[in-house]
Amino acid sequence: MHCPFCRHGDSRVVDSRTSDDGSSIRRRRQCPQCLRRFTTLETASLSVVKRSGVTEPFSREKIVNGVRKACQGRPVSEDDLALLAQRVEETLRSTGTAELDAHEIGLSILGPLRDLDEVAYLRFASVYQAFDSLDDFEAAITALRAEHGDEEAPAAAGSA
Predict the structure, then answer these.
(1) For residue range 114-134, what is the model confidence (pLDDT) as tens digits?
(2) How many CB atoms within 10 Å of residue 137?
(3) Which parts of the chain fold into alpha helices (H)?
(4) Which is it for the CA torsion 95, 98, 100, 105, positive or negative?
(5) Can you tell me the distance from the alpha carbon of 84 to that of 111, in angstroms, rounded to the nearest whole number?
């Protein structure tokens, strides 16, 4: 790490602290030449490989923008979208992979989006799961209904 003051090519770490969310490390450093101190922030990079082969840095904002389109007209707040993007990023980082395929990211959005809003989920899934016909929509809706049926059956049995 070069000193930002004298450009000396070395520095000594004086203190290291992990950020509250654990996604970065803040380091206090001291230059052995000019003895001045400075701070660095280290984060693990996450890259997205697009269909065209181009690699770009991961962006939560792109997730929010993509999901926002699916949630248009639905009762979903900006805070809900930000939390969804954070959940997706945490899931992706937990894989330990530094480069992710854009399609994988789209698929990783489906679970949290289904929990947030089922209509938005169907809209988003129709793109990422390449729905070709009404049968694909019917199958997805049937799966959602089956999940609800499994959740509602014990409640109905308990009230009888």
Answers:
(1) 999 999 999 998 887 778 888
(2) 14
(3) 60-70, 78-94, 102-116, 118-128, 134-159
(4) positive
(5) 10
